[in-house]
Amino acid sequence: xxxxxxxxxxxxxxxxxxxxxxxxxxxxxxxxxxxxxxxxxxxxxxxxxxxxxxxxxxxxxxxxxxxxxxxxxxxxxxxxxxxxxxxxxxxxxxxxxxxxxxxxxxxxxxxxxxxxxxxxxxxxxxxxxxx
Length: 131
Description:
38% of the residues lie in helices and 19% in strands. The protein contains 5 helices and 5 strands, in the order βαβαβαβαβα.
């Protein structure tokens, strides 16, 4: 089966220059192309429209801006063509469970666990779970 991570183009949205540099280096090393980075909501919306990334990694807390709200704006602006958003944070997922579930994001990755494999796992088609 073809590995979907190979050839993936990613937009990383985070207000920390240190994290952006570290994440870009890690993802590029693991075979994901970082098509662009953004530190603000306006930059993220513009970059997503201009670059057409395959996936957007979005920090939940963008230093005064909400990554959750920005993921909703990105989804609304792109409609069915909007790239999938994966939320990231230094905080544990449990801190944001309900907000993540209510957002259009496809999932969450703690920054400490960010990897090409984690992104691939969230992008892979999911098997429906029994209810």
